[in-house]
Amino acid sequence: MRSANSRTEADAFTIVIVTTDERVGPEATTHLAAGHDVSMLETWDELTASIHKHPPDAILLDLDTVGERNEDAIAALAELRALDPDLVLVGLTRSNSHSLRLKAVAASVDEYFVAPIDFAEVRNVLDRALQKRALRIEWRQRDGEHAERESFCDLIGASEPMRRVYDAIRRVASSSSTVLIRGESGTGKELVAKAIVALGPRAKKPFVSLNCAALPDNLIETELFGHEKGAFTDARTARAGHIELAHTGTLLLDEIATLGLSLQSKFLRVLEDRVVTRIGGHSAKKIDFRLIAATNEDLEELVRAGRFREDLYYRINVVPIVLPALRDRPGDVPLLVDHFLRSYCAANNVPPKRLEPEVIQILEEDSWPGNVRELQNLVQRLVLMVDGPLIKVHHLPQRLLYNSAASQESILIPEGGVDFDEEIAKIEVAYLSAALRRSEGSKIGAARLLRVDKQKLHYLCRKYQIGRD
To answer: Would you say the pTM of this structure is higher than 0.70?
Structure first.
């Protein structure tokens, strides 16, 4: 939508006035019709029918003509606001009830006028509200387009390494090839898997995920292959495994490197034959599934060490996608922080928060050993624990402050500034005192430790009245 300032007569705002008061129509039309498309309606039913056909930009609702009680009018306002949060909503009434005004404001009315109504004033107020509405919608559209350029499915980031990941996802999504997602813990491997599925032909088919590191081998085998009734002591009923549940869809095996060699061998047979036999079962079932595997381990090293089967490695390493660590994604930290701030403020009904520029600098400098997951957890904690709209340097955990050059600068030079000569004097006194203690009071020895000549050391000692002559 264009802003209000760019509208032509053909693009005039649509204003609907709902009232049974015959005196309102002529005066409202006189002041509002110039430059706007004004419609006069008398009943709530007429209004709802009109809204569904041609949603207006603004509604002026005569509260005295809706229902028989004030509560009916307030309910009508709330219903209109729920239909369109961007709607400019104006309440008109002949009642001086303070309670009615408060309830109307609570129902998110934009403006409220009590008779006798000056429609010249209404026109001015309405024009400002409509312009703000148009700018708000335009800003939101631009913001959405901007966010779209900085994200892909549920992945956030505009750095070149992430753009390469997005390109790889697009290329493999439409195929059924096995994909191996590699990256450090917390980089978002499951999000990549979900993006591949969402863009592919199996999007509406089952998506079954199993973290191989979460369970011991004997339980993972049951989870993968399922079991028949009586296969073991607790097998009171038959149950399909994850491979079987993924039929026609996608199976994600996260941390596949943690599978034991015996399970690797059994799973390799499933990949080769595309059939699965439940534990305790005798018949094999043909299964159609796409495999996506993920790991943060060095599989090549595991193969050399004999801890991962070489034939399984080649079977799963068909299309590798390497997710970069957060420290290798220049410019993405602010985008992620902004996304998490919006998400967690909204989810927790917390007023919007923002970060001091120094905080952003500190976050960008960090190596983020826990990657995106660590950053996400930090932002969630800050949203919940920091009072007020501004997150400052001292709100950050000590680990970040110790590792940050920006935080060291803020510690050296606080907001109020410093007396430079006084700070330098403190440093000189500290060095002189330490050198004299180390040399047991010998100024010659202290001068040697500080690598200054004797005359300068004597001068500094006299200046600060330190040491004996």
So the answer is: no
